Amino acid sequence: MSKILIIEDEAAIRRVLVKILSEESDTYKVDEAEDGVQGLEKAKNDDYDLILCDIKMPKMDGVEVLEAIKKIKPEIPMVMISGHGDLETAVNTMRLGAFDYISKPPDLNRLLNTVRNALDRKQLVVENKILKKKVSKNYEMIGESEAINHIKDMIEKVATTEARVLITGPNGTGKELVAHQIHEKSERCNASIIEVNCAAIPSELIESELFGHMKGAFTSAVKDRAGKFEAADGGTIFLDEIGDMSLPAQAKVLRALQEGLIQRVGADKDIKVNVRVVAATNKDLKKEIEEGRFREDLYHRLAVILIKVPALNDRRDDIPALIEHFARKIADEHGSARKEFSKAAIKLLQEYDWTGNIRELRNVVERLIILGGNEISENDVKLFASK
Ligand SMILES: Nc1ncnc2c1ncn2[C@@H]1O[C@H](COP(=O)(O)OP(=O)(O)OP(=O)(O)O)[C@@H](O)[C@H]1O
């Protein structure tokens, strides 16, 4: 059920809007307010999924209502209704956070499309919030080695800027962790960080995944859908494995970065987005550029700040602290008693060849906790941690 509030002083227009929306879908529950003051009161006291708001109204005009609602409930999308004289104001309201605007008299198709898009966006924002709550605790960065302290330093310095960041390093070294920390410590932290694994999405789907699509753009596009860039509006998009992105998708990402504009697949209208891009790769992008698989102009746009995360083999000093950290986490997850690692066991693990980096270390610690004795000994490591 989607709850929609219509704030409109002209009774005739209000009636038309209520009628169209109530008849369109059983899942729309439509409420109405006849001026800005009443509308704001309702918005405060009830939970709406969407608000349609006239611009020119006595008592409190639409721009004031928009500003007031954005302060108290920024997640509610607002669609402004503009009359003849205030089209320019309507366009300007989008800078103040309005989702879109429609003109009077309302055109049926445009109205319904806008309402559907706005409700889609609301859904994404809510889903992202839930996801964010679930994951935010998992991003603690352990380690005091020179290499990791340098990375922590870089994160502190760049997080609060708007600079784009490219994170490089082998698999499992913590690139995703770095991206999350940058977001969490930035002013965008109340908005979402949206992750896209560019390697996991088939190249023919990546554009639609990133930029969304319109109904009918391709056979499986049965309805309009927002993409990840729109979902990340106001926040951060994390493009993981960017080195695996297809060249056509790279061209579109470049445009999004240069102009802040995106276009859903099959649409002719641009959408403005305000997104910070953080990207990561385990590939040598310079080599990819030489071999014609990666655009050099995109590289320069992405790599304003470059953070290189070293392999675990290059920061073995951090291994004892990481073992302890994972041992504690794993015991908490399993709800079991903590197990200590003997000094000799830790020393042996410090000498291993960690080709899978921190991810591999975590797996090995988990295996040892499950299979080893009450205190993990050197012998347990020899028995259970060998590859
Ligand atoms: N310094 C660290 N302290 C604690 N945990 C860490 C640290 N670095 C990485 N991890 C953990 O190790 C695992 C792998 O890290 P992450 O997924 O960030 O690596 P990645 O470089 O993005 O890997 P890939 O390239 O394979 O996607 C995660 O569970 C992460 O939380």
Automatic annotation (TrEMBL):
Keyword field contains ATP-binding: yes
Response regulatory domain segment(s): 3-119
Lineage: Bacteria, Pseudomonadati, Bacteroidota, Flavobacteriia, Flavobacteriales
Domain Sigma-54 factor interaction: 141-370
Biological source species: Flavobacterium amnicola
Sequence positions bearing 4-aspartylphosphate: 54
Entry protein name: Sigma-54-dependent Fis family transcriptional regulator
InterPro entries for this protein: AAA+_ATPase (IPR003593), AAA_lid_NorR (IPR058031), CheY-like_superfamily (IPR011006), P-loop_NTPase (IPR027417), Sig_transdc_resp-reg_receiver (IPR001789), Sigma_54_int (IPR002078), Sigma_54_int_dom_ATP-bd_2 (IPR025943)
Annotated keywords: ATP-binding, Nucleotide-binding, Phosphoprotein, Transcription, Transcription regulation, Two-component regulatory system
GO molecular function per UniProt: ATP binding
Highest taxon, organism lineage: Bacteria
Pfam families xrefs: AAA_lid_14 (PF25601), Response_reg (PF00072), Sigma54_activat (PF00158)
GO BP of this protein: phosphorelay signal transduction system; regulation of DNA-templated transcription
